Amino acid sequence: MALSVPISAQISSNQLFPSSKWYIGADAGISFGRGTFCSFGTDKTRVGYGFGLLSGYRINSFLSTEADLHYSHLGLGAYDCCKDLYFADGNRYYAPLTGVKNYRYGDIFSTVNLYELDLRLNIDFVKMFHSESRWSFLLSPAVYGVASKATVKATEGENEVLKGDAQTHFGVGGDLGVGYQVSPRVNLRLYTGMTYLTGKGIDAMPQVDHKINYTWDTGVKVTFALGRSGKNKKQKSVAVITVALQPTEVAQSEQPAVYDEAPQPKTEAKIEVPQPKQVANQPTEKVVYETAIYFSRNQCEYIEESEYKTTVELLKALAEHPETQITLVGWADKTGIEARNETISARRAETVKRYLINKGIAAERISTESKGVDTQAADDNKARRAEIRLLIIEN
């Protein structure tokens, strides 16, 4: 009879080095602003600076959220259209005001300190379509809570003219960013963005003609993934394969010959000499590439960061030899009990197999084997491994 046996294939949802969902980072760059005064003043351009700390959480491969605590220092001067106005008694005038100290707009500037807390959503358009790409392009809408403190000074000698009150602002805006995954944990990102602020002017000057209030920042962010990379053991069933066991012929037992007791006439016996059978050439295996991926003690569930270079070279070899068969042999060190070591060595081979399947390698090209403890290894670090060979079968 033919039997149908369902076999459920399990494939891990892990990527090669899926970083921990949580990460931290820092950013630094240059800052500009516009209010009643602006960074591109009539006398010169004043380049500000900023820096901050951030933390983030990856929702999936292309969405993440971030919270950023940021400090900026800006210098703002008069617009060219307003350089001949006068500032006196906390107000703006078209001509000097008698009886009080007057300052021409072109002869003063404002220094501004900004303290920002922002929450943003990062949308990575590259990862939407190529989740394994090292590059990313992010659109990051954000909301801001900002506290500002400004001081107005004279351009000559930088004597203090006015010390403004602390202001609070609500802001909306966002960034555009281009990122690159330097290593499995470290990401480098260049960004630029604008923030529009509500409330009074950030420069402590009277808002009459120019009532806009925004900042522009550009710089670099460096983030570092927390936790243990790749420790996601969740698996999902992706296929059920039915294997039909075909009936086989059952050899009948040989029956003994039965002879009659009556005498038989003698005949000449003809003996057939069996001819030697032609033996087909046995296929041979040619190894075109071999390497090994090493694991930490008692670890068999994921490929570690230290093996990144090995996996890159392995994928390159697979691309160069698409016709090969792949054998994976798992090994364990001599510590621990024998049954446990057998299991660990088998799971190390299966972990590499799952990784290759996730990379698009056909499952039927891959065979796995468990060898248990390697007693011949130079040390335990060399024993804990999965050996990988690419073979060409030649007839």
- The whole-number mean of residue pLDDT values reads 83
**Strand fraction band?**
over 45%
End-to-end separation in angstroms reads 34 Å
CATH top level assignment of the largest domain: Mainly Beta
Largest sheet: 8 strands, antiparallel, barrel
User: How do the strands of the widest beta sheet line up side by side?
Assistant: 2-3-4-8-9-11-12-13
CATH architecture of the largest domain: Beta Barrel
Order of helices and strands: EEEEEEEEHEEEEEEEHEHEHE
Rg over CA atoms: 37 Å
Shape: rod-shaped
* Derived structural class: mainly beta
What is the helix fraction of residues, given as a range?
10-25%
Number of strands: 18
Unreliable residue runs = 1-19, 229-262
Structure commentary:
The chain contains four helices and 18 strands. With 395 residues, it is mainly beta. The strands form four sheets. An eight-stranded antiparallel β-barrel has the order 2-3-4-8-9-11-12-13. It has a four-stranded mixed beta sheet with strand order 15-18-16-17. A hairpin with a 2-residue loop joins strand 5 and strand 6.
